[in-house]
Amino acid sequence: MSDREDREPRPKGIWSQAAALAARTPESRNRYVDFLRALSISAVVIGHWMMAAPYVSGGEVGLSNLLEHQPWTRWLTWVFQVMPVFFLVGGYSNGVSWNSATEAGRSYSVWLGSRLQRLLGPVLPLIVLWALLGALAGQLGMAPELVAASSQMALIPIWFLAVYLVVVVLVPVTYAGWKRFGLASFWILVLAAILDDLLFFAADLRAAGWLNYAFIWLAVHQLGYAWRDGHVAGSRKGLGWALLGAVALVGFVAIGPYPVSMVSVPGEEVSNTLPPKLPMLALALVQSGLLLALEVPMRRWLSHARPWTATVLINGMIMTVFLWHLTASTLVIGAALLLGDIGLAVPPGSGTWWAVRPVWMLLYALALIPFAVGFGRFERASSKPRTIGAWRLVAGGLLSCGGLALLALSGVAGEGWLGLRVWVLALPFAGAWLAGVNPLAKT
Q: What backbone phi and psi angles, to 5 degrees, belong to 111?
């Protein structure tokens, strides 16, 4: 071997790369925030994959989920519905980044542009793929209803981005509210959510219920600010919040008009998530309180190299895994249909169905790997700061939000060109263009 070859750097494995990044972590960083982000993503992936219960009966394909077949599993959603943790962590992170930006003299436009690049850049390739798959499936004669159902199932994760985009756009307002009013800014949103549910149920104003997407998730986001500033930290305070949430949650389900499940169940008249309702806010208090009660010992544990390196590794592809995990499982199910319905004739919830769950989970994980590797670069992309007016950034973020929400609700199939909802598919791209987001920016 030549001296030149000896001097050339050898490519590092992903664990070594993560370890190198982990070693450079500043002492001031709260590693528990990153750990909770990784933990919640893992819970979402496992929960979605476990819940999926496609089956073929009498030649008909049913895209059902386990919650329909075994009602006892609806209690498990109290653990696997971790969207509240996302917004709690988002509040903490946005509080840190916005405070740093203002102290450094960076404008709202620069701050928001960077955030939108990180949020919208990775999701655009996902939409492109499903537009192509939807058009191809339509040309091959697949029923539009099946195309819509399949794409909607795969695009479920983007509803979170739709809501979170609005939350990010409003950070200067919500952070100013936190600085001026403290925890009162949280309780004001709680009161608004209570009033909204009263209008939904007592006055039968169902359209008003959609306002709770703002009231409830902004309230949880305010708790993230409170966590950052030490107002809800510590085991005693954490357990107090958890107890308050647990009493409210049990009361809502036992006495109120709310179902047990923390995700939507087909056939149920009321959903706790579509739109979100008070049990979701109570669950947020339970989860946030319990996790914050564990912060001190968990931060000690994360000071060790191995758990922190694993956390860094997962967070390095967290958005990609989140966005693509249902695409991977949907394509595995599609392959099973093409192979003569292999494995899909087993009745969901039966003993055999449970016995083969590990096999399906493994197949889903293997199918996710090429997506995580191939599309991870979009998550790591970052463009140079550009001078873009705040109005364009806000308008672009909201336009993208509308498109993502509509795709998450109904998928890509429609009456337009090539059997697609062309104008809906165009909205996220129009919003990204308006905001100057470049998914092909160099890493």
A: -65, -50
